[in-house]
Write a structure and sequence with these properties.
260 residues, 6-stranded mixed β-sheet, 5-stranded mixed β-sheet, globular
């Protein structure tokens, strides 16, 4: 039996004259997911689902993903607007059938935990003590089942100064919670528009690239510009007792793509 989770991020769907490229990119990425053999058990998109947080953008996202045949979980990012996200997706499978922007879904072989690190009007993120206490309880509920903890903002500095200034403000508090649990397979995030991995709180932090545009590697400062670099997503797959992370090319690749 194979177990895997596809991890996409930062599609930035929008409406109007610039809507075509990000929608096409997300559709292509989801089509590439469906062409995997075997298909993953689920898919998560770690935030910045849309670009301006407007209701019409979430309607466009809903039209794009409604027919997707695999379990698909959405996570809020700083470009998202909580009220508009919940108005479109609350009570649906995309938010764990619930009415909150943080939720947990019990898959047979893993628990997927979606956190909401967005702070209205700010680019940086924060979880807060209530959400962290909720996370602690969720991780304790199935202590022998691997858990994926998903959020938008990286909980530590990744070496790109501009983006490090807008990371998760209470990353250390998150680490304290995770350190109490031995079942966290990965912490999954986005926000940086690049693939980044780092050790964190006794597990591995994995940042997925954007399905649309990637950030320049501005390691010495300045604002990293967005470039149409080749796109990809991450596939976290259980091999024996070890979780392995693969990078799956999407654009500029000869890999098969399926429709839905």
């Amino acid at each position: 039996m194979t177990v895997s989770l596809a991890h996409l991020s930062d599609p930035h769907l929008t409406t109007g004259p610039l809507a075509g490229a990000p929608a096409e990119a997300l559709g292509r990425a989801l089509g590439r997911v469906l062409a995997l053999d075997p298909p993953p058990d689920a898919v998560v998109i770690t935030g910045d689902l849309v670009d301006r947080g407007e209701p019409a953008e979430y309607t466009a996202l809903r039209r794009l993903v409604d027919g997707f045949p695999l379990p698909l979980h959405l996570v809020a990012g700083n470009h998202d607007e909580r009220g508009a996200l919940l108005a479109e997706f609350g009570g649906t499978r995309f938010l764990g059938e619930g009415a909150a922007s943080h939720y947990a879904v019990d898959h047979p072989e893993f628990t997927l935990v979606a956190l909401d690190s967005s702070v209205p009007g700010r680019p940086d993120g924060r979880l807060g003590p209530d959400q962290l206490a909720w996370l602690d309880g969720v991780l304790a509920r199935r202590p022998h089942v691997p858990a994926f903890v998903c959020l938008h903002h990286p909980p530590l500095a990744v070496g790109i100064p501009f983006l490090d200034g807008m990371r998760l403000a209470d990353g250390e508090a998150l680490a304290d919670v995770l350190a109490e649990h031995r079942n966290v397979a990965r912490v999954l995030a986005g926000h940086v528009h690049r693939s980044v991995t780092a050790g964190f709180a006794g597990t591995l932090l994995a940042l997925a690239p954007s399905t649309h545009l990637q950030s320049g590697l501005a390691l010495t400062g300045g604002v990293p510009h967005h470039f149409p670099e080749p796109t990809s997503f991450l596939l976290h797959r259980l091999s024996g007792a070890t979780w392995i992370t693969h990078t799956v090319a999407v654009s500029h690749a000869a890999g098969p793509v399926a429709g839905f």
